[in-house]
Each structure stands twice: as C-alpha cells, then as structure tokens.
Amino acid sequence: xKRTRVAGIIPMEDGFALMHRLDVKKNKDFQEYYTFxxxxxxxxxxxxxxxxxxxxxxxxxxxxxxxxxxECYSERKNEYEIFYLCEYVDGEFGTGxxxxxxxxxxxxxxxxxxxxxVKKEEIEKILxxxxxxxxxxxxxxxxx
Length: 144
Prior knowledge:
Elements: E1 3-12, E2 15-22, E3 33-35, E4 38-40, H1 47-59, E5 61-74, E6 79-91, E7 112-119, E8 128-129, H2 131-142
Parallel strand pairs: 1-6, 3-8
Antiparallel strand pairs: 1-2, 1-4, 2-3, 2-7, 5-6
C-alpha cells in the first residue's frame, strides 16, 4: 500500500527549519543528511493537518499552512510526498516530543534527530533529501 508523507518548508530567522539526521543505520546510502520535517499521515487526517501535527511533534512549534509547493512519488519507498510552505506562528523551536525523541527501541536504527535552523547561504552545501525537491527548493527560495 502506498504511504503518504507530508512535510513542511518553514522559513525561520535567516534560514529554514530542517531535521538533521545523524548515525542513520537503517539507510546504508545516507547515514547523515537533512530533511524537511514531516512524516506519515494518520487515519482520517488531511495532509494539512498531518503537516501541522508532525512539525509540532518534531520541532515543538506551531505553524500555519501557506500553500502546497511540491508533490513527488518515490518508487524506492513506494511513497507519495507533499511539501507545504508553512509560516511559524509560535512555540519554542527544538522542544519536540514526537516518538523519534522517546528512546523507543523501534527507532534505534533511525539514528539521531536534531532540529536545526540552517542559514539560507548554507542550504546548497548540505545533503538535503529528497534531491529533486532540494533542487526545486533552491531555485524557488535560495537563488531568487
């Protein structure tokens, strides 16, 4: 069954809020990378609701959806992804309490999840996944 993953692109300070992933054992190709915060939809949830929930779980902040930016399908993961531009509303960045921070043994191979605000001028230098979305994001937000 195809999974839907939702993610938020959140401008903050003079950069963007990203999840830095370190020591990822379950992904032999990428043990360290950055990704836009997000995750799978829960039953009965709209993509917008899922994006807001995931960002609150991962970063401890509240956002509002501005607009849908990108959609893609990953054949490797059999996963459909939707990326939304979000606006920071309130909350303390880095206080997320989602399951990835719980020391739950099912996350042991997932490595560390480190919320970071990456400065705009650093974005092109980092490994930001997925690469096709990074390319669009750089064209739309960094090289403007």
